[in-house]
Amino acid sequence: MSKKRVYVVPHSHWDREWYFTIEDSNLLLAENMDHLIELLEENSDYHGYVFDAQISVVDEYLKVRPHNSDRLRSLVEAKRIFVGPWYTQADSLLVHKESLVRNLLYGVKGAEKMGHSMNIGYLPDIFGQNHYLPSLFKGFGIDHVILQRGVYSDQLDENLNFRWQSPDGEQVQANLMKIGYGPGKFLSADEDFHKDRLQPMLDTLASLNRDTDRLLLPSGGDQVLVRDYFPETVEKLNANDDRYEYVLSDYETFMEDTWQETSFDHVIEGELIATEGSRIHNTIRSQRYDIKKWNHIVEHKIINQLEPLATIAQSLGLRYPQEWLDDMWKNLFDVHAHDSIGGCNSDDTNEDIIKRLVKINRQADGLMNMIKRQITKAVSEETGSEDIFVVFNTMPKLHQKSVETVLFTKDPDFNVRYLDGEPLDYCIRKQDYLSGGKKIVVTAEGDKEVEIPGYYRTEVHITDVEVPALGYTTLQIVKAAEKADHLASSKADVIENDSYVVSFSDGEMKLTEKTSNLSVGNFIQFEDTADAGDSYDYSPLPGDQAILTGKAKLIGVRKSPFVEEMTIEHELILPVDLDSRKAGVKNASFTIRTVLELRKEEDLLRVKHEIDNNVHDHRVRVLVQTPVEQPAASIADQGYSLIERPSENPRMDIWREQGYKEAPVPIYTVEQFASVDSDQGSLAAFTKGLKEYEVLKEKGQLALTLFRSVGLLGRDDLEWRPGRASGINNKVVTTPDAQMEGELTFDYAIQLSGNCLDTTALFETADHYNERYVTYQHQSLNTFEERLDRFEIPQPVKRLPGEYSLVTLDNENLFVSAVKQAHDGKNIIMRVYNPTHHSVEMDVRGDLIGNLKRVNLAEVTIDDAPLTVPAKGFQTIQFSVEGDLSL
């Protein structure tokens, strides 16, 4: 009988930060990497070492050990230290799809620069797998995946090797680390360990691999130091084991050997969020809402605004800020590491994460400030007009929607028009008179203080502004004799637009969709429950009853011809903390203020909740009533298409008796929107930073988790997660900041329809709700609204036309996830996706574009064939800019 071959893979899973800070991690990294380099150089018998598939460890190490660059590069080139393809081990469900692409882009390019990027989509510890990861890996030429979490035993075909398939049909060869990434962490040839622990583990692995005798034994753990005795241990094990042959190896070799020997044909599709063999921490999506919200803000600014704006600017002769973006992205990748974005960290670490996001946000604002200012100044020189503002469309599709902006004027009354004089309708949301202050004037008699005239700061809503695709248009501000329409108080208890009516009566609101006359009564309610969990998982308190809001109070209504708002409040009396919950004592007043907004031309109801949280140990959800009776499933977006998820999970009836690591609760992650649909009508919710939802089937409600408030990192024996605490199991770390005290705001929008959901319409609405435009006014009244306006900057381009478009994408079924400079610094990249069920031809036009080619995600040319985007797939194109529009 031949022996089964055991591939012993030494590795370290390197958390960037967690209950320790990133500074702690980097100090440890430098010491461990020093030792690893020295060990591998001195011991040729030590096959190699996997450093968690992330290049960030190399960047951090070389910051403090630059003199070791050549030594490290030699070991990476020789495939003895494995880094890449990730920059950091990103959570694949909580970050933007484009962030995952960039993480891999920086990871692969950085690792290749060091000598080799590991050809394994390595996913040892992230909390669930995005269903587009196979396609993303294939886009980088990565053929294999090794993962730990998210697969049920009955999804397998008696093999831990399988083919994992994305919605677009792309497949990768996968291996499931069924017993985790650390079974060989304490590998030893001692007889007790060998017979009592190692062989039983290997017997389990062998029983799970029907068609191969090749077994993977990952031999490492979190932040571990390389085990220098492994070669001798393997030699001793081989001498004493008559059933298993041991070999020091790596993940690439294991996958190549195993898949060359056997062609596994079993296919698993979809997102992988099984809770049987390992914890997924489904409810971590609502932990530290502030981190999730800041991450949404920053991702949106970089991906949807700054990068395309910088691309427009580059085509006009300005410098693309690649070096700044490199720095911003790398800092963001640290935030996207699975623990970091999850928020399951110490307070010190979470404070660092927030500071990192605030810094990136400031960088994005500053870069956009300079670009907008330089372009607008050049437009002003060409048009000869001072009183202008420019609207930049950062989408390669024509913008014909409203624009919200802030204008500064000397007079309170003004008109807005195009350069050709055509007027635009607008209303004033808010207007304030500001003192001009004083300035110092140098005279022959010395410095004198001079009073500066005051001016008006006005928040305006302008309707139906037409802006060319991936370009800009220029609007003028002219003095007006008549007063503009203001958003003013009204005694009405109804707001409406062309699509909806929201009425308030007897403490409840009713939403009606006009076209179908479909109505939903009491459509917003709030639920408060105890949270007896920890930073990883929400946990219900046994015996606790949900506290629901009753009737609301109408605070006020404001109306204008183009915008209408209704403000209401819900009051609750809640237990102040977990002890009060257990005692049945309600001793804290809790207020939720809600602003509902309808805009004239929108098929949306915008919703904003404001809460000043003064309660601990609880979870707050908004329950949005839908028109669907007992919805069996929800539809949401993930990556480049829709995903359908069941409202109830039948495994909830068996999970305890079958020993699942965590309850498979049907609580899911939302990327941009979640919805329910039936012949009775449909309702979709579009979110900004809210990341968790559940469909309450019996009530027909869509529950969006606003936030969790819990002050512990690590707690044993939760209701939905039995056994040890996650992460650190020998110490409970208090995290008072995670109680989320203070003012919180939450934004989302509701779309109600009497019709079934339409895929294209859902993605169109998501694009519209996440503003894909920016504005800039050429003015000198206020130099603090945009922080860099008060400083002098160069003006590389002197004159530009009043209107401009770089490129147009003409197809309503295609959507854009990225417009940016190529990694080579020479061309422009545009990534387009098709969420529909049929392939779509791409029509790309632009007077200045040339050398149009298809490239893969690594931005390597594929061909210049006709551009077709596959069903539920994406396509990346590259083009150059030919010519110059600067005057």
Top keywords for this entry?
14 helices, 7-stranded beta/alpha barrel, alpha+beta, Beta-galactosidase, Chain A, domain 5, 6-stranded antiparallel sheet, Immunoglobulin-like, 887 residues, 3 domains, single chain, 10-stranded antiparallel sheet, 53 strands, globular
Task: Briefly summarize what is shown.
This protein has 887 residues and is an alpha+beta fold. The protein has 14 helices and 53 strands.
How many separate helices? Answer: 14
Which second-level CATH architecture of the largest domain applies?
Distorted Sandwich
Low-confidence stretches: none
Rounded to the nearest angstrom, the radius of gyration is 29 Å
| Total E-strand runs | 53
Compute the separation of the termini in Å: 81 Å
Question: What would you say this structure looks like, in words?
Answer:
This protein is α+β, with helices and mostly antiparallel strands. It folds into three domains: 4-280, Glycoside hydrolase 38, N terminal domain (7-stranded beta/alpha barrel, Alpha-Beta Barrel); 490-769, Distorted Sandwich (Beta-galactosidase, Chain A, domain 5); 805-887, Sandwich (Immunoglobulin-like), CATH 2.60.40.2220. The longest helix is centred in the middle third of the chain and has 37 residues, at 347-383. The radius of gyration is 29 Å and the shape is globular.
